[in-house]
Amino acid sequence: DLDSSGRMLLSHRALNEISLIDWNTGNFIWHLGGKLNQFDWQGDPKMKGQHDARFLPGGKFSAFDNGNRLHDARSLILDLDTLQMKATITQQFQTPGLKSDAMGSFQPMSDGSGLIDFGRVFPANQPIITYFDSDSTKIWDIYSLDSCGSYRASAANFPFELHRPKLTCEEVNGDVILGVEGVHSQYEWTTGDNSATIVVQAPGTYQVFVPRGIGMMGTIPFEISSLSNACLALDRQEASLGRPPVKKRIGYFDLLGRPVFQPQPWQVVVERYNDGSTRKVIFQ
Asked: Is 81 in a helix, a strand, or coil?
């Protein structure tokens, strides 16, 4: 990794060392770890087979420490005192029992969270990629069903909008019913349900995945704080994303405008939507 001052941060995996080098002269400025280590680690286990050394703001550095099966793999954020020659670990994250002997990366985020690719992991049933928040609480893992390794993972904002499926929301007889626009061959809700619609029983965050291409794509996670305002909250979320409100059914009405809660076979009713549109429906 190069900084604006012409210095290069280089990870030597086979030497268990991170070096700071003057890119213009080729001279070493310092050695951290390995046989030429110049820093006091103050009791912390030294790096083994590390990868992905990066400059961070404030004079700090990050790296992924594989551990080479000698200790658990971990992410590291290091603060180096080059006057006292002390290396202080200011943040680390590790999954207990997870070892890594090759590959891997660590991407710290500006909010203190981080994304780890554990490289080639042992045992093979461990997660290969983990995202954790600023207090080192694990948010999610990614597991691989047919391998036990990944070289590097990166988080980035897409320079384009994903055409995600959109949630729908209806309030029927006091129930909040979530669905998704369109008809799909499969539904995977984060609640564990597999139906086209679900009845929301309690406040929480809801999302559904449907087939898209060779995989599946999820709706924007929708947080419901109150069941009485759920559908209105969905309209506001869509508006905040620059989207028109989701079209949803208000209810069924007879030809005189009276609500119909249980349509009968061959009954003709009018289906009304929140955008003012209607359609005639005959139940069979």
From this structure: strand
